[in-house]
Amino acid sequence: MELPGADIVRIGEEGIRSVTGYFDTRTFAEQLGLQAVVQPRRAGPFTFGTAVAVRTGKRARPGAFSITAIYPQSGEQVEYIRDTSRQIAQEMLAMPGFVAWSGINFHEIMMTVTAWERPEDVHTFMHNEKHRAAVRRYYGDLGAAGAMVSTWAPVHISAMVRCERCGRMARCERAGGACSCGAALPEPLPYW
Fold it and tell me: For residues 187 and 102, which has the higher predicted lDDT (pLDDT)?
């Protein structure tokens, strides 16, 4: 690890009184493999936060999205919701129909958005024991101010890829695997 910085040496009549080291904290964090993002909590109508995602890499078109929003009232609740959500998301990787999960924290609201292959997959997920325990805690002693749970079915999803020969964007469903320039298109990227 290399950490550039500067030392400030204070000298008095009897010699060195103190040495204070200063270094770039962002460089330090990045060398440890961490992200260093400095942003306000709010700026005008915008609220900033953090997010985490787990993806299967499946190329299946999502047939449903489950969206949950929870309003925690304390730091302890935020930690419990964050940690439990990540544990559940880890288990989702082995669930049939699971495509991807995102956890979003905007300080006063925590959200999850999960992509599923079919709406029925959401119902299957509801039987996951860790999820059921978290729901029991929510209705019991968690103390969150409120929540919203929902399942959404997409009306329109259009996958697009860029042609490697001519640089044009092509809609995968319409193109049939070939660009209007005649070149074969790359495989569509995962939807989520």
Answer: 102
Q: What is the pLDDT of residues 13-65, one digit of tens each?
A: 999 999 998 888 777 778 888 888 888 999 999 999 999 999 999 988 899 99
Residue 157 CB-density burial (10 A; 0-12 exposed, 13-18 middle, 19+ buried): exposed
Statement: 47-152 belongs to CATH 2.60.40.10: no
What is the spatial distance between Cα 135 and Cα 88, in angstroms, rounded to a whole number?
12
CA trace torsion 191, 171, 63, 139 (10° rounding): 50
- What's the pTM value of the predicted model, to 2 decimals? 0.80
Helix axes 75-92, 129-139, angle to 10 degrees: 160
Whole-number Å distance between alpha carbons of 99 and 64 = 10
* CA separation for the pair 68, 59 (Å, rounded): 24
Domain boundaries, the chain: 1-38, 47-152, 158-192
